[in-house]
């Protein structure tokens, strides 16, 4: 367990570095470009990461204080932290996120791999906790990359996002108060390096095939299924991808079909 956690933490640090490379290249005007998340500009995506990386570091180092702070959150929490980020200069906001992300990695490197960590829902294992933070960094970073045009090539670190996306299949249904189907779905993905990842359950009737990039963009609701080149066989597989959501919280609005031509997702 400790070795697995170590690998995930180092991949999280690498994902932070990849996003930092994008943010450091941005000119001031790019911080205020609207992203495809309604009402959120680039700076709001970075603010979100800073806030929750700080919270994640606290959850690891002081679970009791984190639980108290999480229990005290009011309905205006999101509006308040976005307002804070909107008062900052690009340099201040970048520095805030870099401090928060570095503190998270430092805390995670010292974490007990066997401990359960608190979050805004059920407690999680250390590996699941850090994997979720990596997914957040990659997906909110994608929101930034999509509108700034600054490249951040995908890597095989996407395996973590694909894994949590598959594991979250039941949640995609329960989050919408739908019955979880018992029908198995197999997921066969080509990684950025060209490897084939076989995930999900054995099935020849319901199979999802394609790139890890496309699959991860769908399960994080950063692309509509229609704007990918995924090959989806079987009604159960298609039904899942139409509502797939790998992150916690209410059902995400997702993206509309036609926002991204399929050729941009390869």
Can I get a quick summary?
52% of the residues lie in helices and 10% in strands. It contains 10 helices and 6 strands, in the order αααααββαααβββαβα.
Structure characterization notes:
By secondary structure, the protein is α+β, with helices and mostly antiparallel strands. It folds into two domains: 2-148, dinb family like domain (Four Helix Bundle (Hemerythrin (Met), subunit A)), CATH 1.20.120.450; 182-265, Nonspecific Lipid-transfer Protein, Chain A (2-Layer Sandwich), CATH 3.30.1050. The protein has ten helices and six strands; from the N terminus they run H-H-H-H-H-E-E-H-H-H-E-E-E-H-E-H. It has helices spanning 2-23, 42-61, 63-71, 77-86, 90-109, 126-148, 158-167, 169-174, 212-219, 235-243; strands at residues 116-119, 121-125, 186-190, 196-200, 207-211, 231-233. The strands form two sheets. A four-stranded mixed β-sheet has the order 4-3-5-6. It has a two-stranded antiparallel ribbon with strand order 1-2. Helix 2 (42-61) runs antiparallel to helix 6 (126-148). It is globular and about 50 Å long. The two termini are 33 Å apart.
């Amino acid at each position: 367990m400790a070795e697995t956690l170590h690998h995930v933490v180092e991949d999280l640090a690498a994902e932070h570095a990849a996003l930092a490379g994008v943010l450091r290249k941005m000119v001031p005007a790019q911080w205020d470009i609207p992203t495809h998340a309604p009402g959120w500009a680039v700076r709001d995506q970075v603010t979100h990461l800073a806030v929750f990386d700080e919270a994640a570091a606290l959850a690891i180092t002081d679970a009791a204080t984190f639980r108290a702070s999480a229990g005290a959150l009011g309905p205006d929490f999101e509006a308040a932290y976005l307002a804070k980020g909107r008062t900052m200069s690009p340099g201040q906001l970048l520095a805030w996120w870099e401090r928060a992300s570095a503190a998270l990695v430092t805390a995670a490197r010292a974490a007990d791999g066997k401990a359960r960590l608190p979050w805004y829902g059920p407690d999680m294992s250390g590996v699941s906790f850090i994997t979720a933070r990596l997914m957040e960094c990659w997906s909110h970073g994608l929101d930034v990359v999509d509108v700034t045009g600054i490249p951040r090539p995908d890597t095989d670190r996407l395996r973590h996002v694909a894994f949590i996306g598959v594991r979250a299949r039941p949640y995609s249904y329960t989050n919408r108060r739908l019955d979880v189907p018992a029908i198995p779905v197999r997921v066969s993905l080509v990684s950025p390096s060209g490897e084939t990842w076989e995930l999900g359950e054995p099935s020849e009737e319901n199979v999802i095939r394609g790139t890890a990039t496309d699959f991860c963009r769908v399960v994080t609701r950063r692309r509509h299924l229609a704007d990918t080149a995924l090959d989806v066989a079987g009604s159960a597989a298609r039904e899942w991808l139409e509502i797939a959501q790998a992150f916690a919280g209410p059902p995400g609005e997702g993206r509309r079909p036609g926002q991204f031509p399929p050729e941009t997702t390869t």
